[in-house]
Amino acid sequence: FFQYCLSGHPTLPCNVLKFKSTTIMLDCGLDMTSTLNFLPLPLVQSPRLSKLPGWVLKDGSTFLDKELKECSGHVFVDSVPEFCLPETELLDLSTVDVILISNYHCMMALPYITEYTGFTGTVYATEPTVQIGRLLMEELVNSIERVPKAQSASMWKNKEVQRLLPAPLKDAVEVSMWRKCYTMPEVNAALSKIQLVGYSQKIELFGAVQVTPLSSGYALGSSNWIIQSHYEKVSYVSGSSLLTTHPQPMDQASLKNSDVLILTGLTQIPTANPDGMVGEFCSNLAMTVRNGGNVLVPCYPSGVIYDLLECLYQYIDSAGLSTVPFYFISPVANSSLEFSQIFAEWLCHNKQTKVYLPEPPFPHAELIQTNKLKHYPSIHGDFSNDFKQPCVVFTGHPSLRFGDVVHFMELWGKSSLNTVIFTEPDFSYLDALAPYQPLAMKCVYCPIDTRLNFIQVSKLLKEVQPLHVVCPEQYTQPPPTQSHRTDLMIDCQPPPMSYRRAEVLTLPYKRRYEKIEIMPELADSLVPLEIKPGISLATVSAVLHTKDNKHVLQLPPKPPQPPTSKKRKRVSDDVPECKPLKSLLSGSIPVDQFVQTLEKHGFSDVKVEDTAKGHIVLLQEAETLIQIEEDSTHIICDNDEPLRVKLRDLVLKFLQKF
Amino acid sequence: MPEIKVTPLGAGQDVGRSCILVSIAGKNVMLDCGMHMGYNDDRRFPDFSYITQNGRLTDFLDCVIISHFHLDHCGALPYFSEMVGYDGPIYMTHPTKAICPILLEDYRKITVDKKGETNFFTSQMIKDCMKKVVAVHLHQTVQVDEELEIKAYYAGHVLGAAMFQIKVGCESVVYTGDYNMTPDRHLGAAWVDKCRPDLLITESTYATTIRDSKRCRERDFLKKVHETVERGGKVLIPVFALGRAQELCILLETFWERMNLKAPIYFSTGLTEKANHYYKLFITWTNQKIRKTFVQRNMFEFKHIKAFDRAFADNPGPMVVFATPGMLHAGQSLQIFRKWAGNEKNMVIMPGYCVQGTVGHKILSGQRKLEMEGRQILEVKMQVEYMSFSAHADAKGIMQLIRQAEPRNVLLVHGEAKKMEFLKQKIEQEFHVSCYMPANGETTTIFTNPSIPVDISLGLLKRETAIGLLPDAKKPKLMHGTLIMKDNSFRLVSPEQALKELGLAEHQLRFTCRVHIQDPRKEHETVLRVYNHLKGVLKDYSVQHLPDGSITVESILIQATAHSEDQGTKVLLVSWTYQDEELGSYLTALLKKGLPPSTS
């Protein structure tokens, strides 16, 4: 039972579990923070970006000035942005049998795994996870492919060169492993390997292991996974939420009695309260618009945006914003809004009830109907005609390195009337803004991360009582910037086992039992004997069949009839073929009764002698001696088989077989 | 012997009033709770007093499962839960939970408001009944209690229709409800995995029919509608608000679009728009194609089909009207039928099965003079067409499902006795499984023969599988263990462990036999001869000659002593324990025969 840790990012995990004879990958998150080292990809030629000076080494050498550009004291790679993949060398990924996906954010590395490693297994995910995951991938591919970049920088990755670079480039890890974005054909190929599953669906893997997705409450279709055999249970908790937003609530009860609970995907901003952040988001938005400024909200096309739109739906009239246009710009904006309305079964109770009426579960349907919310595939086309300011724009990507958001940063950055509000917690907003400095526009940081915080975790762990907790090392110590906050770490007994990227953990549990089935015919033949009150025993001699990791016991085949022919057979023909194991014996032999029994069976000259430990029974005529002690009996006789067998059977009458 | 008992309270050799009681491993489950369209008296609902005379239903039933929203499967539910009284869980899929109360309310209105019946369930009762419903996902394993679990499979018959697997331990039953094995314009095909249930309870509406290709039927339908409209006639298509209605609407909509037809198409009752809305919100339950394209174009937004107003029925000129209900037994479809029946230019197309006793059934069986309420005689001159669009599996489909699920027994419901008889024979012939077709109130008992799961200690299993891995793995290996039965737990452990756990000591039984051998040689030479002899015979055994002069064969010890009186005789002491009984017994017999002549 091993866990291979392929990702060091606590909220974008990628672990591989060897459980019984199966190899299971848990999530394949893609660390996109690597893109922060790159220059943004502008949709429209940006004079500012193209005029940035090349970076010059301290000794004056300029050989990197084509690849690296400097902006307000930071150095950026001028190339197509690249992503940091999960570790691919730690184990042979073609041996992975299945991949379990917990939510759409944690599947972004899927094409790299399924299309480049010889993977031939199956991926399991819920329908909303797949549909929305597809949208996220489509948006990503689209926003990178529509800005073709002539150059692809690689010189800076040379280890010797990288040493000379300023931080953070100098410290970037595994840069040689960074990869460009995948293509749509690869996305489609990867998604075609997914098999859809529903919550609480039990999926058998090779008869050895059962996996079950459970609602995790974090996003549409998000799941935690139970991986279990008959005797051991591993819970994989990834991106869970106890807040009531739109998804179905988290299923906590099913996590009980776990031997191991792997805990990932906790909130990235443990000190921010999501409700408070939503309030700040609304008030900052209203203030900016009232002052005639525009609001830019860098966001993913699905998830928190649904909740923000719902808040605004309730808020805009009272805040006097009903005339302000809201734009949602993404190649998948329309699909995302439509898809959100058809997953009734994956929504919280309130939203489900609406569908029964039948009404759309999310109020953004009404915002669209009343023209308050408009969506466009990109800034080109219809949008440029409809565009009115001041307005509110929701668009991606939250890293501010690609997507339509780059255009709005360039367009609105120079005016202090405008505000950019960061709601997605995945990227440091200061790093995201770095290539746009100096900036006049206001920046507000309202990270909304609904995933579990440490207080909720400790309550959850008390509730479900796992024997062992496994988590990323980041959760076992306070955040580096707040080292005094010992409340911002996991506190449980026994202390959690922690892992880091490229590490292999041995999971602590020991199996004692396995399931086996006794066929009805065999069961009928068993003779149970009550040994103690309430406890019965039966000896079982049976044939073991094992197929597809399932064990079955059957009646042994009837021994072939001994040949009845009178013809003398050679002794060697009769050598016993296999050694049928005889039962163990237990009990003791009461001498008086034994002697009586002997006499009843025709032994007339029985004599008993006492010894230190027991008795000796003598059959004088037969020259036979039976030593009887508390826990042993020894029959010593001439080579007279019928006599010996008779005595044996008489002794056995007093003993129990096991 | 464990058994499964099945008693239909409705749908036994009949269509309508589906309600089947199943007892499996001590659990009682009621499958569907339908009404009968052919009756207006007590017979319209199942006789729930059969379940228990004076006890509470809740105490007797562990759960109720509703397969889909058609009234012959759920129409008696509020009566059952609120008037007879049942407070346990009722399971159905999300779309069924959404649509079922609407149809129940519709049914209540027709019965109470139009026909003036009293003592019927009320709107409040429908609401209270629905509060007891637990919605299930497809393929979700729902744990009803510790032992009983159920799982829904896609059935394709109408939006949200499901087949259910009911499982206790390793015994299981699959109930199909109504299903369709061929995907149609808006739904996918039914699917079940190879779950090998002890019993498959399947509908058999079209037990003897093998339907021609769907294309032909659709072409036929369109041709008939088109011809009638061309000659200025009116077409009435009685349907149920949800189900075939959407299928036929999609069909007509695309045809009108393609042929650029102008005659109006109407859909009666306010349900339509609402119904289509359900289809939009539950689009994940429709077929692949509709799901894929719904963002660009929602198939359930119709351009040519408008809402019907009662006054339109008297409008001159051609028109097509979809009206509810589907069997012409009440409501708007019956009203329009009465208006249009007298004109031979008009046409009524019955797109689905009609239950005995309904007007639909009468005209389909050729009756042209109908007695209506108030002794009025209605003469039917309009053309009557039947076209099987109901989404039931035909004989081929039923056989296909049986092949998929591989049940050990099959039980037919929801069909006519004669047709069932035919299908039963066919099933028994082709699959060699028993097939049953109980009438209402008749109990079928099926004996199951479940294997018993026990916990085997890993030590014992490993020991056994290690032996199994020897080169000679083909030979079945006997394994030996002790089964400990305690408080309903079964554990198979090695005999040693069993003794240890119970705090018992082993009693060793040992035999020592004196074997006399004629051999004048010295003792150690005799021993050597014995050793060589045994080694030659027992090739597969470990035979050893120990330094102290004794011989071992496996764990059997052989020592030689001189005979006290006769120097020419040696005495071999062969000693073994009870566990080596076979080999010990064999050895003494072998040695008794003497040694082969010495070769040295």
Keywords, separated by commas or semicolons:
heterodimer; A: 658 residues; alpha/beta; Metallo-beta-lactamase, Chain A; Rossmann fold; TATA-Binding Protein; 3 domains; 7-stranded mixed beta sheet; 17 helices; elongated; B: 600 residues; Metallo-B-lactamas (chain B)
Structure characterization notes:
The complex is a heterodimer of chains A (658) and B (600). By secondary structure, chain A is α/β, with parallel strands linked by helices. Chain A folds into three domains: 2-270 and 451-506, 4-Layer Sandwich (Metallo-beta-lactamase, Chain A), CATH 3.60.15.10; 274-445, Rossmann fold, CATH 3.40.50; 585-657, TATA-Binding Protein (2-Layer Sandwich), CATH 3.30.310. Chain A contains 17 helices and 32 strands. In chain A, strands 8-7-6-3-2-1-22 form a seven-stranded mixed β-sheet. In chain A, strands 9-10-11-12-13-20-21 form a seven-stranded mixed β-sheet, with no helix packed on it. In chain A, strands 16-15-17-14-18-19 form a six-stranded parallel β-sheet, sandwiched between helices. In chain A, a hairpin with a 4-residue loop joins strand 11 and strand 12. In chain A, helix 2 crosses helix 5 (184-191) and helix 3 (127-145) packs antiparallel against helix 5 (184-191). Chain A is elongated. In chain B, strands 6-5-4-3-2-1-22 form a seven-stranded mixed β-sheet. Chain B has a seven-stranded mixed β-sheet with strand order 7-8-9-10-11-20-21, with helices on one face. In chain B, strands 14-13-15-12-16-19 form a six-stranded parallel β-sheet, with helices on both faces. With 600 residues, chain B is α/β, with parallel strands linked by helices.
Strand order in space, largest sheet of chain B: 6-5-4-3-2-1-22
Briefly note the structural class of the backbone of chain A.
alpha/beta
Instruction: Give the CATH architecture of the largest domain in chain A.
Output: 4-Layer Sandwich
Please report the first level of CATH classification, the CATH class of the largest domain in chain B.
Alpha Beta
The helix tally of chain B amounts to: 17
Number-wise, the strands of chain A total 32
| Rg over C-alpha atoms of chain B, rounded to the nearest angstrom | 37 Å
Keywords (chain A): Cytoplasm, Nucleus
InterPro entries (chain A): Beta_Casp, Integrator_9su, IntS9-like_C, Metallo-B-lactamas, RibonucZ/Hydroxyglut_hydro
GO cellular component, one term (chain A): integrator complex
Main location (chain A): cytoplasm
